[in-house]
Amino acid sequence: MDWKPHVAVVGATGAVGVEMVETLEKRDFPVGKLTLLASARSVGRTLPFRGRDHAVTELTRESFRGIDIALFSAGGSISKEFAPAAAAAGCVVVDNSSAFRQDDSVPLVVPEINPQDIPGHRGIIANPNCTTIITLMALYPLHHAFGVTRVFASSYQAVSGTGAKAIEELQGQVRQIASGQPVTREVYPHQIAFNVLPHVDVFLDNGYTKEEMKMQVEGRKIMHHPAFRASVTCVRVPVYRAHSIAVSAEFSKPLTVEAAKAVLAKAPGLQIVDDPAARRYPMPLDTSGKYDCAVGRIRQDVALENGLCFWVSGDQLLKGAALNAVQIAEELVRLRR
Prior knowledge:
Blueprint: E1 6-10, H1 15-26, E2 33-38, E3 46-49, E4 52-58, E5 69-72, H2 76-88, E6 92-95, E7 124-126, H3 130-146, E8 148-157, H4 164-178, H5 210-223, E9 229-236, E10 243-251, H6 257-265, E11 270-272, H7 284-287, E12 293-300, E13 307-314, H8 318-336
Parallel strand pairs: 1-2, 1-5, 2-4, 5-6, 6-7, 8-9, 11-12
Antiparallel strand pairs: 3-4, 8-10, 10-13, 12-13
Helix pairs in contact: 1-8, 3-5
């Protein structure tokens, strides 16, 4: 008999939580029962799932009795408090926060890259950072073929990565500027409309931000590549949805553009959009709402030995968060069969 797990979504009313519920339905995940959990202020709200409305209930330590899989997207502090309790109740947690990503006992998983790490879980599996996932969707197949040693990258991150209030702030500032009103700001330290901010997350002692260091730290764990190095600048841009990353990668083996494209063409969850003469390249407008990431602008790097440049774009709410979590849950179901 096929397993139909009781699934909980923690942080169900947030941007990623809503996407998780929709993704479970769109991918026809075998949900036996769905429980929506959030803070007390969200109790009473409903979300549609398979033709009927499901009410949100308050998250407590006792919420996980009888639940098989819990998809968490409520922030690191909530995950640290409630994920161990869920695991102790026999539930497998797929956590979208950074709380457990560097815990050696917790697998950090992108299913297209390291699904073999999932069976080793001890009740918690971590979802990587969204920018890291989108980058590795193109970088890992190339690493598998040619052996990446280091990358230099710049991200172009949408405001939805900060949350719903950031989307509202961008919308409001655009209206204010268009009508000649003073620009107000609350979410970001500077105006985001018609501007870019080279500042995502908090600054560290080495001058990088926490977000910028995630690609190296998380990339090493996901790819099982402890020598991997990544120098990254993360930039917030006035785009509503989907992150993009410009990557210059150096490899241990020689490679050509043609060989790289042959590898990328076979990579799961990735589309090649690369015809500059026809002005075809990946853009956030085109990857928003899509499951697959897109890679283009593939060219030989003229500054690095065995180097390749590429541009990758993907929906950070889907492949960067909700979709990746559901794919991990799908692997858990497959392992039970």
